[in-house]
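1st attempt posting a full record on here, be nice pls
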Amino acid sequence: MSKLILAVMLVLVPVIGFAEGRCPPGQYPIGDDRAPGCAPIPGAEGAAAGMPAPVPTGKWETRWGAIVEDAENLATGASVSMKTKRQAVSAAEAECRKVGGKNCKLRLAYYNQCVAIADPDARQIADGGGKSMAVSAQTVEKAKTMALEQCRATDGGQTCTIAYSACSMSEFKSFR
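the predicted structure (as tokens):
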């Protein structure tokens, strides 16, 4: 019987030694196999005792952009880096009216991204065909690529060029 208890203890001792798993001393495992991590054991040595908590130095503020157009008059207005969607749309509408738009309507509002407009060839528009594409994406290059691909895929393959591109990326504002 004592040999059985000794055998069981010898089997369990190595398992107990790995209780902290993949983490260094003073930390314990968090997450799962897909997203593993370690967190400090409160009050344990090596748990960053005496280190002050990090203090934020600022914050990221959202920035909006908008594209407004009057399809009848072919007038377009755009805005970038506005603090609110309302400001972005209002500024784009004013720009649209400034270039002759009478019935300017919101085409695309976006925030913390880039935008691109791909227009068909002028001959296609004059012939009553062609469709412009406005696309937002994380980078201006990606927005341009997507806008051109979508524009070219319209009406059985039209010739398109980038007419406009811009970014309204979030801005870091320091607390100091």
